[in-house]
Please model this.
Amino acid sequence: MPPQKSRQIIWQLHRKLVTLQPRSNKQYDMARQIAETPILFGEDAKRFENNMKNVQPATEEERSLAEKAYQWMRSMATFAM
Model:
C-alpha cells in the first residue's frame, strides 16, 4: 500500500478523535441541526452510482494498517473508553 494511503487513514482517524474533544471556548454545546444531504445530478450522480455498484472490500493490508492506526490513536486517548 502506498504511504500516502496510510497517512490518509491515520489523518482521518485523527480528525475523528480531535472532533470528540470539547471546544475550548464553550465547554458544552447544544446539538446542532443535521444539514440536508445534497442531491447529486448528472455525471456526479452517475459516478456515485457506479462506485456504489462496484465497492471493493478493503485488503488485509489496509485493514491491518487501519487497526494499527486505531490502536495508536487509542493509546493516546485520555478519555474513558
Remarks:
- The mean pLDDT is 79.
- The helical segments are 3-19, 42-53, 60-76.
- The chain is about 55% helix and 0% strand.
